Amino acid sequence: MRVLLLEDERALSELIAAQLAGEGHAVDRFATLADADAALRAVEYDLLVLDLGLPDGDGLDLLRQLRAAGRRLPVLILTARDAVEDRVAGLDAGADDYLTKPFHADELKARIRALLRRPAREGEGMRLGNVVLGADGHSLFIGGRPLALRRREQALLAYLMRHAGKVVLKEDIETSLYAFGDEVASNAVEVHVYRLRRKLQTAGADLRIHTIRGVGYMIAAGEDAAPGRQA
User: Fold this and answer.
1) 3-class SS string, 70-111
2) Consecutive H or E run containing 12
3) What is the pTM of this model?
4) What is the pLDDT of residues 130-175, one digit of tens each?
5) Taking the CB of residue 215, how many other CB atoms lie within 10 A of it?
6) SS3 133
7) For the chain, which domains are there?
8) Longest C-alpha distance within the chain, in Å?
9) Distance separating alpha carbons of residues 217 and 173, to the nearest angstrom
């Protein structure tokens, strides 16, 4: 999952980013509303962790702007404002959860896991053919048998399954897997697709990842997954 972290306290921002990276997320860190707003316009994020007191304004303004535009990505407010009226204001503005500082890292990670597996996002998980990806984004079963994947392979599968039957651009896949500033090899997406494709086939998955030459990839199951159609 790709997470936008808006926090102007550098040491805390680095600590949170490291914790989330350890959970398998790609994290983009920003310290101002302007930079975060620009990133949100360019990238489809899975979660926003939002501080309120920022150098160029109040995080609630950004939250209200997102909700007014119909953006439904989960938002976790992370702030030192601990008064009841502040919590009410944050939730009324459209936040999905509210956590006050200081906080315990394990609680933050647990709350984020809960937000990312909410039914509003993926129901009880995703199923395509005999492949089931749990709502937590981590548990994977092929024909009822568990399969372990590397972090980015799992994220790639989740992204493709969310767009099953549709062609997704290579550039969009890369954006979903890597944070700003990550070093990305020119063939990184191809390598991840190759490894994921091989593991799924070995495990007996009845779906295929099709290569659309010069464009991107498409995942499909059933008759559309016939080996003869896979590039």
Assistant:
1) CCCCCEEEEECCCCHHHHHHHHHCCCCEEEECCCCHHHHHHH
2) helix 10-22
3) 0.65
4) 898 876 566 788 988 889 998 899 889 988 998 888 999 999 999 8
5) 12
6) strand
7) 2-116 (3.40.50.2300), 123-229 (1.10.10.10)
8) 61
9) 9
